[in-house]
Design brief:
The protein is α/β, with parallel strands linked by helices. It has five helices and five strands; from the N terminus they run E-H-H-E-H-E-H-E-E-H.
Length: about 160
Amino acid sequence: MKIKVINGPNINMLGIREPGIYGKENFQTLCQNIRDFAAEKKIEVELYQSNHEGDLVDAIQDCYGKFDGIVINPGAYTHTSIAILDAAKAVSIPTVEVHISKVEEREDFRQISYIRQACVKTITGHGIAGYIEAIEYLIDYKADSCGKNETCEGKK
């Protein structure tokens, strides 16, 4: 199994940016936790972060035919980017939306999530552990899908 983890704007500033909301753990810790978990589960993971909307669209499109799942935290683009939504819909890869904070308890504008329409699950408010939860979900999702579809044989 191969999963792409895509992070949007300011996620690279974890530990610096509003630690009362996003926690004190930094981006390097997030990345290492993901790599360690992937190694433990014997799956491939590729990490990507950009502050630029078009780069995020390109990263999603690049997953087509190469990845079994996507974990995405589009950052502020969650609430503004139809382009990211359209890219996720185009590739039709099981995608989990992750937010470190509990966006549903924050400002009104954060209640809008365009990407959610293309996702099989949304995880909010679990800190950076939400990424591990998202990967676990995709592993189970893939296993369940393959259990119902013989074309997945050998791809678990």
